[in-house]
Amino acid sequence: MDIITLFTEQRWNILKSLSEDKYSPLQLAEKSNTTMANISQQLRLLEASNLVKKEKISNRDKGKPRTLFSLSEDYAYLISATNGFADKKLVILDNFHKALFRIWFLEDQNLRNCTEKFLWGIEPYIGNIDLIIIKNEGNYVKVLIASKNSKSIDKKIKDVTIKNQNNEPKDFKTEIITFEQAEKLARQGKGLFSSLLDINVIYDPFMIISKLRKMEGSEN
């Protein structure tokens, strides 16, 4: 089966759900408002295409193993339709390109352009970074970077002024904290975590922001 034919609305919604957390077939059926038989069929197709994987965990309530599904890799499906080159391809993303793809999805073109340049500037240190979030304050961009080894990057990543495609300057003001501090601020809803709607997540491999947004959604 061609990969593009897999991306029906229902299968795409399954992939979006699994990008947030691991789910059982029953949970996915409830989220999709469909039957277990239908969800199981969709999951088999996605698993056969290596887009999702399953694991069995112990079920304390019934004693039987419980099956959970998750994404098998961090994928991007690329489609190019440009003069001189048209193609499509499913690729596995490394940590840097996961952050780059998030930037490409920013709505503000000027912010997108400047933030991409900022990311390339810190690319050598991405292996020591565990969280990047930004907030556009108008005349400058506030950047929060968290790391389990913050001392290794503390003096290497500095405030910088970046010009966009219109040659207009944008200041990027960076704060570097430990990963433990970021988790604490996130739980308390302080700092940039005080309003999740106002921030842009650039890099979050431990899904701190996804889990917070999921909790907020369940409370509303």
Task: Describe how the helices and strands are arranged.
Blueprint: H1 3-6, H2 9-20, H3 25-32, H4 36-48, E1 52-57, E2 66-71, E3 75-82, E4 85-92, H5 95-104, H6 109-122, E5 131-136, E6 140-147, E7 160-163, E8 169-178, H7 179-188, E9 200-203, H8 208-219
Parallel strand pairs: 6-8
Antiparallel strand pairs: 1-2, 3-4, 5-6, 5-9, 7-8
Describe the structure.
This protein is α+β, with helices and mostly antiparallel strands and 220 residues long. Helices cover 38% and strands 27% of the residues. The chain folds into two domains: 3-75, Arc Repressor Mutant, subunit A; 95-219, 2-Layer Sandwich (Beta Polymerase, domain 2), CATH 3.30.460. It has helices spanning 3-6, 9-20, 25-32, 36-48, 95-104, 109-122, 179-188, 208-219, and strands at 52-57, 66-71, 75-82, 85-92, 131-136, 140-147, 160-163, 169-178, 200-203. The strands form three sheets. Strands 7-8-6-5-9 form a five-stranded mixed β-sheet. The protein has a two-stranded antiparallel ribbon with strand order 1-2. Strands 3-4 form a two-stranded antiparallel sheet. Strand 7 and strand 8 form a beta hairpin. The radius of gyration is 20 Å and the shape is globular. The relative contact order is 0.11.
